[in-house]
Amino acid sequence: MVSREHKREDKRQRLCSVADTRATNETATVVDAINYIKELKQKVETLMTDEKNMMKTTAETSSTTTKVRVETLERGFLVNVDSRKSCPGLLVSILETFEEIGLNVVQARVSCSDTFLLQAFGAQDEEEEESINAQMVKKTISNAINIWKKS
Fold this sequence. Notes:
With 151 residues, the chain is an alpha+beta fold.
């Protein structure tokens, strides 16, 4: 049979290894273990606070971010606008921008319920002498969105 002292010493040694202490007696080992647990608890609280802050920041950023992608096609541009929140009035602003830069909306799909999604194929007016490129379209639409956000 294993003696009580031997079992107790075995438990103390395991506690020492977990709490990363070099204490030689039981009282010091327990005190070190308690301090180690407090330290771990503080680290957990800090991580939880950091996670909450990060999630809050991510939610705020993703709810206000509107993504604009423009692809050049053979006879025009494919414009995708994606926002994670509903954007009343944004569609009108974007369509006015299309008109200002001389793009005719040939075909479009729009969702404005909980989120805002626009996929539109725009072809350049044939009367327009100035040619436009995808970067110009993206910049102009992004500017219109920023103006819309401020209004």
